[in-house]
Amino acid sequence: MQPSAILTDIEGTTTPIAFVHTVLFPYARARLPMFCSLHEDDPVLGEVARLVPNQPVLNTLLAWMDDDSKITPLKTIQGMIWTEGYLRGDLTGELYPDVAPALKRWQQAGLRLYVYSSGSEAAQKLLFGHTAEGDLKPLFLGFFDTRIGPKRDPASYHTICRGANIQPGECLFLSDVDAELDAAASSGLLTCQLVRRADGTVASARHPTAGDFDAVATIFKLPAKRPAQL
Length: 230
Known about the structure:
Rossmann fold
């Protein structure tokens, strides 16, 4: 079935994993002690203390970072730190070269575009709002993070579709993680795994696979880039 809406993951799907792990994460980690010192009364730090009592908040956050935990307060704090980095010009959102042109074609053709990532909604908007291709936020109708639910929980995809007024069978979910695709498929969504060579993604046998967004377009009969003129 040809989808009328696209729900896309970020890390390993639109954006190289290396950008997240070698640029964004170290940037936030280096600035975390100062952040905790300057924002000690911020409610998000209070939420960290509530979740892990009797431990220094900074130590808890560093441990979560070491484990690459998808815990909402951590993602919120990382997003707050990255906000300053993007606004100062320290950071530029990195996308695979096939992503921005495909998203623009699909949006111009009337497809409804959404993002669902473990990174906070604020962090998602920062990444797409500060790319080498310009501000891509207007291409999307909605951004969803783990506040909606875990990405490996089928109920999360039901919630997204209800909130966006989309029939699950009309929505295509793009991700590099097969467990996320399993959850989306069990909720009735169409699925496609991005198998990016640079990220070393292992292809799943349970979902269609594509090396880039141009291949996604071919598989699902979406608007594709025009062939080069001879």
